[in-house]
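Appendix C: a fully annotated inverse folding record. The material below is reproduced so that readers can follow the format used throughout the book. The structure is listed first as tokens, followed by the designed sequence.
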């Protein structure tokens, strides 16, 4: 997508030179971070992460306890002071416990993968929703204000991490503050007083 943007900008460069275009810049990363809805989303994701960690920790505790029981049964099955029948009974119990132990291990790994995927999917969904909300506000603002192009100064190339916008004139109007004000003015009441922690928009 960003490669396409660069190509389009280069292709349209001659037209830009001839036309009297009104161009604005925006720091999308800063806008994303200072949007109060972002802070609320991060708080909810952190709470869910903590819940998942507690669930996994409980399973790990059960797993460790079962491991201790298995070790005790194995030692008991090798205890020379016990009769052969008692040793065999302990060995049978140890084998059964081993199967339970392995089953719990698989269950733990599967649950961890499920929770990781669920959290990651929600994070991506919320990220997409927030960017769509920001884009809409930018569109609603830029059109009536007569801007022909709004450029994100925080965008970087996916391969090198170098900024896509290497230079822009200070004469260009930065609409970042205006967009943040509009976003937070229209934010849901529950998040209007929240403060967003730092992070990246892309």
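Designed amino acids, in order:
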């Amino acid at each position: 997508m960003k490669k396409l943007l660069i190509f389009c900008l280069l292709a349209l460069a001659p037209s830009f030179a001839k036309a009297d275009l009104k161009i604005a810049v925006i720091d999308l990363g800063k806008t994303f971070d200072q949007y109060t809805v972002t802070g609320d989303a991060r708080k909810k994701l952190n709470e869910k992460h903590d819940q998942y960690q507690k669930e996994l920790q409980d399973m790990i505790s059960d797993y460790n306890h079962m491991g201790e029981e298995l070790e005790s049964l194995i030692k008991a099955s090798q205890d020379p002071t016990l009769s052969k029948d008692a040793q065999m009974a302990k060995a049978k119990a140890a084998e059964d416990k081993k199967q339970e132990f392995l089953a719990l291990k698989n269950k733990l790994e599967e649950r961890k993968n499920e929770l990781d995927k669920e959290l990651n999917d929600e994070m991506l969904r919320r990220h997409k929703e927030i960017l769509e909300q920001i884009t809409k506000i930018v569109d609603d603002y830029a059109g009536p204000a007569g801007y022909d192009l709004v450029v994100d100064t925080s965008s970087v190339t996916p391969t090198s991490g170098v900024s896509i916008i290497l230079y822009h004139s200070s004469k260009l109007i930065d609409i970042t503050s205006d967009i943040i004000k509009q976003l937070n003015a229209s934010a849901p009441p529950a998040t209007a007083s929240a403060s967003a922690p730092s992070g990246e928009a892309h």
